[in-house]
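Morning!

This is the sequence you dropped in the shared folder:
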Amino acid sequence: MIARVERRSFLKRYGTHPLFVAATADTWLRHYDHRRPRFRVEDGDGERIGDSAFTIVSNQRPWAYLGKRPLMLAPHAGLDVPLTVTLFRSIDLSALLGGAASALNGGERLMHHPNVVQRGDVHQLTVIGYGPFPWQVDGDYLGDTEHLTISWMPDALTIVMP
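The structure's back. Tokens below.
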């Protein structure tokens, strides 16, 4: 989805949110294999968290904004705690719409969806693809890969706030 948005980045200044919504719908309807998971996710000890069609690793809340409205994907995420992993076992319509509705309303219901696994206090995780999969960081598409290792590092940045 991010790659599709970046191909039309000149439109972002006119309608960022509609562009992301359209790219999400187009990707889900025409460009995504719904029959199988894309990768598996393991924690730092090698324990399998699960097979996944889509996973979000969070270190802050809100995760993003839709206009001025915060999207609370992982209510317990924060800069002062390890990572939170939200793993979608499948991206069926109920998971997508349920996830969006939950994120717009505080994020608590998402943790109880049958196709979603959410785990907090994750210091490290490994993503192992069943073939190449796309990945992005903070809205920037970084290409396709077959393996990622993601780690939480406390106090890695100094943040200055007014």
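Headline: The chain has a mean pLDDT of 81.

More detail when I'm at my desk.
O.
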